[in-house]
Every structure is written in C-alpha cells, then in structure tokens.
Design brief:
This protein has about 280 residues and is mostly helical. It has eight helices and three strands, in the order αααβααααββα. The protein starts with a helix and ends in a 15-residue tail after the last helix. One of its GO terms (molecular function) is endopeptidase activity.
Length: about 280
C-alpha cells in the first residue's frame, strides 16, 4: 500500500513539475501567457491522469469506479451541486464580511469581457488544477489510504500529501535554478490545508468526485473573476480590512468545512469516521 500511495503522489508531482518546467522553458521563446497556460493544462493532465489510470488498473487491480469518478452524464448533477455549494458558502461569507464591516459589496455586473475570459479560463483551470488534483488526491490517494486507515486519519494524511506536492515541486524548481520559495508562505499552506479538507469532506459525504471538481473549479473562478475588487468583476467588492479578503478566499472554505462536518454527523447522513473501507 505504501508504494501505491507513493507512486500515486509522484504521478501528480511529476505531471505538475514537468508542466512547470516545460512552460518555463517555453516562456523564454516569447510564447504568450495564454499559450503557456494551455501548455500547463495539457501537460499536467496528459501525464498525471494516464499514470493514475495505470496504477489503478495494474497496481490496485480495482475498478476505476472505486475512485468515485462516475461518467460525465451521471456526474453532471454532482458537478452542478459542487458549484451551487460554493455559491452558497460564498454568499454566507459575503454576508458575514459585510456584517463585520470587513468588506462592502459595491455593485453587480455582467461584463462581456469577463465572461469571455472565464470561458477561456474554465477549461484551462479544469485540466491544469481541478481534474488532475481531485482524481489524484481525493480520488486515488484517499481511496488507498482508507483501505488501511479510518476515514478521519485518511483525510488528514490526504491533506498532508496535498500540501506536500506543491512544496516538492517548488523545491525541485529552486534546486534547478528555475524558481524561488516566495509563493510558499504560511498563508498559502493554511489555504491548502483548508481547501484539501473541504474537498475531501465533499468526497466523503457525496461519494462522487464530480462534486469536488465542480466546487474546486467554481472556487478558482470565484477568486479570480467573480468576487473581486474590480469593476470587471461579476460581484464587485471593496475590502475595508484585510480580513475581508480572508473572509472571501479562506472564510468561504471554512464555512464549507463547518457545514459538511455538521451534515456528516446528522441522522441518516451520518458518516462513520472510524470506518476502514476495503477496496
């Protein structure tokens, strides 16, 4: 089991690391930002996903469905549910931020240029971040961890591996003289811990990875284009305090964690956190 976990984690690290190296090299030739983003997405998914598939088939020798990734048609409602859940917790975060005086909702817009940018960015974010990350961490790694450890411990170990991945890639880039440690801050690590937790809770509660992918993708678009202090945002906000920024970006995720934990402890929806689930 240890080696399956190690190779599963490496599948993503290799995919992401290779994508960053190739994009960095391509950038020296004057390739525009959009081209580099597409390159990152294509390389990350085309390396990570086949490796996870091979591990699942030949190392685990278990069905692909065990990872929680149903067919797109059957997963559509979960995908939309993930987007809806993100919208709900973001709305609560905005209400709380406004009530505490940390932020102010300025106006609502529907700018064509922002919609166009989002239309371009969504498939990039899907294949660069949301899909390969959810398949690897909340899918493959958690599934294998939960065959040996209780759910609560498998969740914690998954979060640890999730945080470790970008640190490992950054370390490699620094060692190769292609990067710095500037992005690995305490705030960044805290964000990863919270994000990895809420996403794993979604997977446990729903038993379907598409809800994770929907939430993940929607969160990325929300913090980049939807709820930002810009006249081009869909929900234009003004941060009165730094806590307003934290409330939108990390507060919404923490609200989601609280809601999902409460949901997992209720009646017929109760989750057996001590359960070890054979594959």
């Amino acid at each position: 089991m240890f080696w399956r976990i190690a190779f599963g984690w490496l599948a993503f690290v290799i995919g992401l690391g290779l994508a960053v190296v190739i994009a960095t090299a391509a950038g020296t030739y004057g390739i525009p930002t959009l081209g580099l983003q597409i390159l990152l997405a294509v390389v990350t998914t085309s390396v990570t996903v086949p490796l996870i598939y091979l591990l699942r088939r030949y190392a685990d020798r278990r069905p692909w469905s065990g990872l929680g990734l149903s067919s797109p048609p059957s997963g559509l409602r979960y995908f939309l549910l993930g987007i809806g859940f993100l919208a709900l917790v973001t709305a609560v975060a905005l209400l709380l931020g406004s009530a505490f005086g940390w932020l102010r909702v300025v106006a609502l817009h529907l700018p064509a240029v922002t919609l166009l940018v989002m239309l371009i960015n969504i498939p990039i974010a899907f294949f660069y971040e949301a899909f390969p990350e959810e398949l690897t961490f909340r899918g493959y790694l958690f599934r294998n961890l939960n065959t040996r450890y209780p759910r609560w411990l498998a969740l914690i170990l998954q979060v640890f591996l999730f945080v470790l991945a970008p640190i490992a890639v950054t370390g490699f880039m620094v060692a190769a003289g292609l990067g710095t440690w500037d992005l690995i801050t305490v705030q960044y690590i805290v964000n990863l811990i919270a994000f990895g937790t809420v996403l794993q809770l979604l997977r446990i509660v729903s038993n379907n990875l598409w809800i994770n992918i929907g939430f993940h993708l929607a969160w990325l678009e929300m913090v980049r284009y939807v709820v930002v202090p810009s006249e081009y945002a869909i929900v234009e906000i003004e941060y009165v305090s730094i806590w307003g920024n934290y409330m939108v970006t990390i507060g919404s995720v923490i609200i989601g964690i609280i809601v999902l934990i409460i949901w997992s402890l209720r009646g017929r929806h109760r989750v057996d956190w001590s359960r070890i689930e054979p594959d």
